[in-house]
Amino acid sequence: MTDPIQQAHGTRSSVLFIAAALASPLLLITPALAHHFADLSKLQPSVLNGVLSGLAHPLLGPDHLLFLLALSLVGLQRRLGWALGLLLVGLVGGAAGLIWPGLPGAEGLVAGTLVVEALVLLRRLPAALLLPAMALHGYVLSGPVFGWTTMPLAAYATGLMLSQGSLLLVALVLLRPLASHLAPAKLRWFALGLAGCGAAWAFSAVAL
After folding, report:
1. Are the C-beta atoms of residues 136 and 93 closer than 8 Å to each other?
2. Do 159 and 52 contact (CB within 8 A), yes or no?
3. How much helix, strand and coil, in percent to the nearest 5, is found in the chain?
4. Does 114 or 78 have the greater pLDDT score?
5. Taking a C-beta distance cutoff of 8 angstroms, is the pair 148, 97 a contact?
6. 112 — pLDDT class (breaks 50, 70, 90)
7. What whole-number distance in Å separates Cα of residue 142 and Cα of residue 157?
8. What pTM was estimated for this model as a whole?
């Protein structure tokens, strides 16, 4: 039989791990603006720099990172095929960003997807709304590379797919079993924190 003390300790450790994973992006005080690794590092467009930019880009935006990690809470009762669907939708959104760039207010809308995700967690909205939310994230992530030549652009798309796929894998394979130990009250607190971050970043994106 499982020792109740060890089980309680494991549950507390799981909660702390989930809290640290979801709260770490909040330490970044910058508003939800998509910054490009190549631009920040003054790199010239190339295949290598394209891959590096694609890998790094979801990690540089706290809104993107938090959205992906919080999917571990949304996906508790869902099959892993759901993650593949989200990844595909994100790639479609990225392609749309290259074809029709410059959607007004896109950064604010991306921050607002955190509020949508929180309401999904609270079962106030259907989970299907996360599909257009993921597409919007892909759209914004592709925006800064508009104007690149074909090879660096293809390299960026490859790096971005690997990065988002890895984050989804971490969220839905590694974090999801830990998230299953969260009590409903703690889940509500996470949802409220998520909504608060989304609302604050959306306001910052509109105000700046």
Report:
1. yes
2. yes
3. 80, 0, 20
4. 114
5. no
6. very high
7. 8
8. 0.76
